[in-house]
Amino acid sequence: MGFFSRLGTLIKSNLNDLISKAEDPSKMLDQLVLDMQSQLIDAKKQVAVSIADEKRLKKQFDEQGELASEWERKAMIAVRAGDDQLAREALKRQTEHQSQFAEFGKQWELQKAAVEKLKEQLRALNERIEEARRKKNILIARQKRAEAQKSIQDTMQGLSDNSAFDAFDRMANKVDQIEAEAEASVELGGELSGDTLAQKFKALESSSVGTDDALSALKAKMGLAPAASANQGALPAARVAIEEEVAETAQGESKRP
User: Fold this and answer.
1) Structure confidence by residue, pLDDT tens digits, 198-239
2) What structural domains and CATH numbers belong to the chain?
């Protein structure tokens, strides 16, 4: 094989490959149906022309039959009038029209049979186009379903290495770390501002004071201690210690420059 023959074969193969890759089934099917519809329109035009020819031949056939009958009638008139020569001329015309009548009748029958055949072919073509249109819709639906399945499969394969999920987990751990650091900062800020001491004092008031008051009331009810003295008793040792701690803290802050 020569160089140019091989080059031509290579170019054709590449072009065919490009065309094959560029073919979109849905678009190709739409175009094929449009081409078929165009062919159907052309076929209808041809059938319409054939039907018109058949009607024209039928009309000419009828006209020749009427003319043959008319010349026969004229020949009879000539015979009644005693003019045999005129009758012969009329009969000659009748024969000519009868011959045309027979010929047009033959052509009309042939054309009529051809028109019927064309009509059958046109109906078959129309049925094939309708079937192609139905198949087109089914094929397009199959194509879309296959493309959707392929897209999902490609996506799943792209995530098969778990890289995206690992990154997601890392980001979740980082958010957890940020939240823990924020909570630690809030707790540390509360300790530095003296909130912890205030909270201890508040807890003592809500628990120890309430318990001491209840105990004093119980002793007064039992006659072991007067109610007034129970209500006006000294603070428990824990409260005294907390008040001393608050006083020391206040003195230390006042001595700072």
Assistant:
1) 666 666 566 555 567 777 787 787 777 654 444 444 445 555
2) 3-160 (1.10.287), 194-257 (no CATH)
Residue 139: how many other CB atoms lie within 10 Å: 15
Residue 168 banded pLDDT, cuts 50, 70, 90: confident
Query: SS3 for 162?
Result: coil
Question: What do you get for the CA distance between the two ends of the chain, in Å?
Answer: 105
Count CB neighbours of 71 within 10 A.
20
d(CA 219, CA 213): 10
SS3 state of residue 9: helix
Question: What's the number of CA atoms in the CB half-sphere (13 Å) around residue 248?
Answer: 7
Rounded CA-CA distance 190/179 in Å is 17
Count of CB atoms situated within 10 Å of the CB of 26: 14
Quickly list DSSP for 36-80.
HHHHHHHHHHHHHHHHHHHHHHHHHHHHHHHHHHHHHHHHHHHHH
pTM, entire model: 0.47
Alpha helices (runs of H) in the chain, residue ranges in sequence order: 3-22, 25-80, 84-158, 163-192, 195-204, 210-222, 227-231, 237-255
On the CB side of 37, how many CA atoms lie within 13 Å of its CA?
8
Cα separation, 70 vs 68, in Å, equals 5
The secondary element (H helix, E strand) that includes residue 81 is none
C-alpha–C-alpha distance, residues 111 and 49, integer Å: 11
